[in-house]
Write a structure and sequence with these properties.
This protein has 2 domains: 63 residues, Arc Repressor Mutant, subunit A, CATH 1.10.10; 150 residues, Up-down Bundle (Four Helix Bundle (Hemerythrin (Met), subunit A)), CATH 1.20.120. Helix content is 65%, strand content 5%. It is globular. It has 240 residues and is mainly α. It has a 3-stranded antiparallel sheet.
Length: 240
């Protein structure tokens, strides 16, 4: 069976002394998807990607597995994936559900968080700010996910955490990667959540988390609307 030629070309990946090759491959593919270089419905074949990126199949396999977990791609066959499509309705619903569930998790965490967990939240946010100042958007995304996940775990309600995990897929998770300035604003909004956690105030923590996600939603759809005005044919999937 022959495969159609892809409509994109990726730059080869070189070894990095700080991060693993699989991490670099994951970041490369993630950014290509989110910036519209790989379109919804585009097939991703493991062997072809390994050739394009000039790496072995193993890091590509690990990257595809990670991106499937993130909801950006879906598996078709053993070594073939496809870029997933998200409608505007999908994205609005995801933001809405995240506001409901993550604000509840923040309220519970404010009551139950341990001192070492609170210190880890602070450290993660500082590191996120450093990554943002260095322009490392992929690192910001990874740290942001870790920061939110720690709050979900600190709520000590496993069922709630599992529900939230199902929502942490697709475009809503990655706004710091493709909306200018969003990473810095996310860091500042995290600070409000951390202060509420430190004061063990469930109400303030819930409000701060709800506002944080609402701001991400607002900025996402503002960016989409801006592209639509500029005549972008498919704003929800175009490069921001």
């Amino acid at each position: 069976m022959t495969h159609p030629e892809p409509s994109f070309r990726l730059q080869p990946v070189t070894s990095d002394a700080v991060v693993s090759i699989s991490t670099v491959v994951t970041r490369t593919l993630r950014e290509a998807i989110l910036r519209g270089n790989m379109r919804p419905g585009e097939r991703l074949v493991q062997d072809h990607l390994a050739v394009d990126l000039k790496v072995s199949r193993q890091p590509v396999r690990a990257a595809l597995h990670q991106l499937a977990n993130e909801g950006l791609i879906a598996q078709l066959a053993r070594r073939s994936y496809v870029v997933r499509e998200y409608t505007e309705e999908d994205i609005r619903e995801n933001y809405h559900l995240r506001k409901l569930l993550e604000s509840e998790a923040a309220a519970l965490a404010a009551e139950r968080i341990q001192s070492e967990e609170l210190e880890e939240l602070k450290a993660l946010n500082r590191t996120m700010a450093e990554a943002a100042s260095e322009g490392d958007a992929s690192r910001v995304v990874e740290l942001n996910a870790h920061w939110h996940r720690l709050i979900h775990e600190s709520a000590r309600t496993p069922g709630l955490a599992r529900l939230i995990t199902q929502l942490w897929v697709g475009h809503t998770v990655f706004t710091p990667l493709f909306i200018p300035g969003r990473a810095k604003r996310s860091f500042q909004e995290h600070e409000a959540v951390i202060r509420a956690m430190a004061d063990h105030s469930p109400r303030r923590a819930a409000v701060a988390m709800r506002e944080h996600i609402a701001h991400g939603s607002k900025e996402y759809f503002q960016a989409v609307a801006t592209l639509a005005k500029l005549g972008a044919r498919d704003a929800a999937r175009a490069e921001f």
